[in-house]
Amino acid sequence: MKILQIIPYFTPKRGGDVNVCYNLSKQLVERGHEITIITTDFELNEEYVKTLEEAGVEVIPSHCIANIKLFLISPSMKKWLQDNVQKFDIIHMHNFRSYQNIIAHHYAKKYGIPYVLQPHGSLPRIIEKQKLKRLYDWIWGDKILKDASKLIAVSKEGAEYAQQIGINDEKISVIYNGIDIQSFKNLPEYGEFKKKCDIDGGMVLFLGRIHKSKGIEFVIKAFSNLIKKVNDVVLVIAGSDDGYKAELEKLIEKLNLSDKVKFTGFLDEDNKISAYVDADLFVHTVRYMGGVGLAPLEAILCNTSVVVTEECGEIIKEANCGYLVKYGDVTDLKEKMKWVIENPEEGKEGVERGKKYIMENLTWDKIVRKVEDVYEDCVYNF
User: Fold this and answer.
1) Which of 62, 149, 152 is nearest to 100 (CA)?
2) Are 156 and 211 found together in one domain?
3) What angle do CA 162, 296, 201 make, to 5 degrees?
4) pLDDT (tens digit, 9 = 90+) per residue, 133-167?
């Protein structure tokens, strides 16, 4: 099949949706499909693009003329779609509320091309920009949802939400995000990351974009209580600033944690894995992700125990491979962190269960076959 992937931005700094588009495209090419990705030049990572092009994926960035709260305007994409969309068997739209999806929807309808929508947890109107999300849905979003041949939910929770807003159950496919297990085959030696960052003793790791939705202030408050009970431990916050770091720095200063919390900025793949390996504990406190998160699964593949919020812990609960807390329950998070640090052997049992679950269910060769089935169903029943 000739498959068009559409995503507003293309840099690993943006997290899971880009990771999925990248790995899915690589896998599909290996299975004999022709893959083109259209995106924008906003934060475009040239090295990331180059590795895909070497694998046989065509990547076409359109110029972004404006960034309105990550609503990326790229008018030149219109001409490209008008001239080229008819060449494709199917379109796969990543994310939901984007300028790119508006114009892709228009040309998909005009030329009769089926499309799959994968919102990556962005369907609910929560946390921020709620009025703008409602406006988008009223003008464009509801039509994009209605006209999609299939919707891929990355969790059962995400599928349930889609049903609640009126999407037919037969239209929804639950496909968890895949894990590139090859990246975790040869792990770095323990201690390399700590040495680079001048860390002695224990280490609690948070890794992700520094954004209000990630619940990092919740981690900092729990950590502040943790160090009253557990000595010689540092909190590492790794990830690019998405406009929220200054607020967190104020909280850290207020709690007198300046010598106990380290910001590393964005970590490339090697340093990310090294950080996972050196962490005594990985915490993931996202308020809403539709029930999943890639980072805790990556930490598990690095033999590190995880504590996650129930809102993003669907797989962790299903595999019984980590500890769950309610979002915002500072006391429970502190207690779970303390338990894991003081009982490492029990945590390792959960890690082994998690690794087994990942190998049996979440490798990309298994995930890509499920996505192929969705594509084929769309094309042959359109």
Assistant:
1) 62
2) no
3) 155
4) 899 999 999 999 999 999 999 988 889 889 988 89
Q: How many residues does the chain have?
A: 382
User: Sign of the CA dihedral 20, 22, 24, 25?
Assistant: positive
Q: How far apart are CA 287 and CA 212, in angstroms?
A: 9
Amino acid letter, residue 115: Y
User: Same domain, yes or no, for 190 and 337?
Assistant: yes
| 112 and 186 fall within a common domain | no
CATH code: domain of residue 6: 3.40.50.2000
Residue type, 73: I
Q: What is the largest CA-CA distance in the chain?
A: 64
- The pTM (predicted TM-score) of the whole model is 0.89
- Paired strand residues for 255: none
How far apart, in Å, are the Cα atoms of 71 and each of 67, 182, 211?
6, 34, 16
Between helix 216-226 and helix 245-254 the angle, nearest 10°, is 20
- pLDDT tens for 9-35 read 999 888 789 999 999 999 999 999 999
Q: 234 falls in which pLDDT band (50, 70, 90)?
A: very high
165 and 154 share one domain: yes
Q: pLDDT-derived band of residue 248, with 50, 70 and 90 as boundaries?
A: very high
> Is residue 284 within 8 Å of 296, Cβ to Cβ?
yes
Phi-psi region of 209 (alpha: psi -120 to 50; beta: other; left: phi over 0): beta
